[in-house]
Helix-turn-helix domain-containing protein (Rotaria sordida), 507 residues
Amino acid sequence: MNTFYVGNIADFETKADRYLTRSEDYEVLININNETNEKTLDISIKEMIDSMNSLLEKLKTHKAIKDDLYQQLIADPKKVKIPYLYFLPNISNENDISLVPIITSRSSATWKIGKYLNQLLQPFADKNLHSTTFADGTDFIRKLNHYANTERRLRPTTLFCTIKITNFYTLDEHQNMLDVIGYFLHDDLATNKLESLTIQTIRNLLYLFLYNNIFYYKDNIYKCTKGSPNTMALTETLSNIYLSVWQKKILKEIDRNIEFFGRYKDQIFFTWNKSSALELETFIENIREKHQNVRFQKFISTNVQFLNASIENRQGQLYSQVHYDSNKPRYTLPYLSGHSKSAHSDWLRTALIRALCYCTSVDDFQQERIALELTYFINGYSLLFVETHIKHFFNYFHAQTMRYSRIQNSYDKFRQQWFKFVEQLYELSEQLEKFNNNGRLIQFNYIYDFGPRCRSNREFYRLWYHYFQKHPTLSEENSKVILTTKHFHSLNTLFAIDKPPHTTVQQ
């Protein structure tokens, strides 16, 4: 959100120091200022990189990886930067401020290996976990609506259970993580290979990635003992695979023909018709006791919050609306990188779609629409801007009268049209993901303040596909080009300063 945290820096750093002291996820590797260290920092880092490159060379020698992949993954000591740790404040529901650790990862020793492994593992994992995964909150509501109103499986006694994984990025020690990933690949691969790599080779590369993630904070170099940096896409992929194995303990106990189950990253939602809330709580606590490495919070009721939606079972009828965190400002726009006006145009459309999908009641939807309009007015957008976007939203399905309608039946039909449209959007998103996985998604951005942006973009696409219409990789059929705009000035350029590499490493 467009909000700033203002606090005492000494208090903030005390919280950060306390977090690192108590955490079991990191341990001190080297104290930079300790003159009794057996090796200097630069020698220790060089030895770590040499060890990684040596194992890569052995894999190449034994023909486990090809020479081009070896060249792609090898780390150059002159270009490697030690990641650094910083913290962001997070306000809990109890109005208490906790810290969220963020570890930079670009240009680290493990960056190349992590990027390659994610390109290899993520498409395979996404395909196998698709049936139990929510793409986002709107996808969750769409599927829950289908469960309750199309399949009519929601009963008056149905309970809802939500689970929030609190250590999503640091689920287990490295060896256990390697074992779980290995089991997952063995169970779901038809052969012993994923593309050109054997499962053992993938494990070897994962070993290099997991055991060589280091970072610095103040005067210490730390290493990750659980998980990996949360800024690396591979970390999320590994956590998704790990939790897919863990959540089978729940899936084993519920009848998929009766119940509804799904997960979005670190949040799980499922229905329960098997027994009482007390028995469900006992079942969940047994899972906690047997698998203590996965830390989570649970909530069981007929009225729950999940992915910013308030969900309620009203005697077998599904009721839902948008849920707002009372600790966050109500009428603020999200902070979006790039060109704010262009990005906020897209966000308004997305927010209207979300409001329509989330709200089962036409009255709730109209309240959300009014709140969104007020939000844009409060943040300085013109009446023309808001009116243009609101009209476009309703005109898309030729439903201009729905803007002020309070007729529930008409609203239900309008809502179903958007559910179908959202399903088409997910199909397009999957196509983009395939282009991206194959290295055929090309993104350009340019500085933009005002002017005929849409016309300029159309002309760019026309010229691009005219000149590349017969190109083997850049033609319209074989690639996808995305144009985005950005401001020359932003809050990032005004307030943010990139932390330089540690002076020892620079020298």
User: Anything to note?
Assistant: The first strand starts at residue 26 and ends at 31. The chain has four domains: 9-120+171-228, 131-167+241-322, 344-406, 440-495.
